[in-house]
Amino acid sequence: MSEKRVSISVIRRLPRYYRFLGMLEEKGVSRISSGELSAKMGLTASQIRQDLNCFGGFGQQGYGYNVTDLKKAVGEILGLDMPKETILIGAGNLGRAILSHMAFREKGFAITAIFDKDPALAGEEIGGVVTEHIDALEDFCKIHKPTIAILCVPKMESEDLVKRLVDLGIKGFWNFSHYDIGVFYPGVAVENVHLGDSLMTLCYKIKELDEAK
Amino acid sequence: MSEKRVSISVIRRLPRYYRFLGMLEEKGVSRISSGELSAKMGLTASQIRQDLNCFGGFGQQGYGYNVTDLKKAVGEILGLDMPKETILIGAGNLGRAILSHMAFREKGFAITAIFDKDPALAGEEIGGVVTEHIDALEDFCKIHKPTIAILCVPKMESEDLVKRLVDLGIKGFWNFSHYDIGVFYPGVAVENVHLGDSLMTLCYKIKELDEAK
């Protein structure tokens, strides 16, 4: 079966499989049935079999899954093994927190530069990478050709920046700004983390809970 | 129509409507047609009409929507006008960045306490709120009865903490940990921000883009 037809809802579950399998691996578990995995993940066993069958299936009927093999296979499906040269735009509180918080390297992301419009930040080292002024963006990209940008700037600044970055060959955005990149650049890969939207969705869920009383 | 039957995909679009309407309001736009709104948001006009009809509909045929009224109505549907006493657990890089980055107050969230297990942080003021040691959690909650917790701690610590928090009456979690709260506590409202999962999903989208070449 072609991977092209796999739905985004299946894809969005794969990182969870990857995390759970990693935990099992750390605990020394070498084999797990879809039934055991489903109890831990809050999915049905048939859902898990269906999901993994989208990519060809990894289990043997009655024997369950080899944890290490399955984790490796899910990681390869996700493309975690592919190297990705990545730059961070915006070295404010959020950008810094993300840099220090995330395990980029184990997912194949190499952070090669940080840019900020504040000249006072130029030269500051964050997580082993030196911050540069945003004016140096064009020169850097022409030489180093990064393909991914993490965007941690306000929406107002994002519109111009995204245009510059796409012109410079950026193919994927991890987008923390509220600029809807995908609407204007359908050809690039975008994963949005709209924290404000998430917080508003929480509001709704709480309200719904109150109303169900 | 009961709001209960509104699908989560409609709900997830409401914060975007709210943001767009806020921008239009700031620009002084008082009225907008579903066609204009759709062009700006990358949705079809019929999708927008359908979404808003789930809640009773706000437009007059041929006259478009009153921006301020519609924004207010969407905000009320989301419950942004409801006061929500909120505590933050985990005053590390991510917790601090979120506190300083987010406009909690305008969404009805009042941050009333910050807790961390590091005794060295006790007494430190972050965003006008004093950090307390996690041991003070029980006493604080019994007196102040907060209903929402923002969880910015590692997964390993989350399991125990979530149990304590649910026992103390917390009804909603903005969950930055990798602990799948919803699987174990189906009765509470949970909105997950799994940054690692989002980054892995970006990996997949980039890989898919490469393969489409």
What does this structure look like?
By secondary structure, chain A is α/β, with parallel strands linked by helices. Chain A is built from 9 helices and 9 strands. In chain A, the strands form 2 sheets. In chain A, strands 5-6-4-3-7-8-9 form a 7-stranded mixed sheet. In chain A, a hairpin with a 2-residue loop joins strand 5 (125-126) and strand 6 (129-133). In chain A, helix 1 (8-26) runs antiparallel to helix 4 (67-78) and helix 2 (34-41) crosses helix 3. The interface between A and B is large, with 64 and 63 residues.
Describe the SSE topology:
The structure is a homodimer of 213-residue chains.
Chain A: H1 8-26, E1 31-32, H2 34-41, H3 45-53, E2 65-66, H4 67-78, E3 84-89, H5 93-101, E4 109-116, E5 125-126, E6 129-133, H6 137-144, E7 148-151, H7 155-167, E8 172-175, H8 181-184, E9 189-192, H9 195-212
Parallel strand pairs in A: 3-4, 3-7, 4-6, 7-8, 8-9
Antiparallel strand pairs in A: 1-2, 5-6
Helix pairs in contact in A: 1-4, 2-3
- Major sheet of chain A, described briefly? 7 strands, mixed
Low-confidence stretches of chain A: none
Share of β-strand residues of chain A: 15-25%
Helix content of chain A: 40-55%
Give the topology string of chain A: H per helix, E per strand.
Answer: HEHHEHEHEEEHEHEHEH
Alpha-beta classification of chain A: alpha/beta
Question: What would you call the shape of chain A?
Answer: globular
Gap between N and C termini of chain A = 46 Å
Biggest protein-protein contact in the assembly: A-B, 64 and 63 residues
Describe the strand arrangement of the main beta sheet of chain A, using strand numbers. Answer: 5-6-4-3-7-8-9
Give the quaternary arrangement of the chains.
homodimer
Our count of helices of chain A gives 9
- Compute the average pLDDT of chain A: 90
Rg of chain A, alpha carbons: 20 Å
Total E-strand runs of chain A = 9
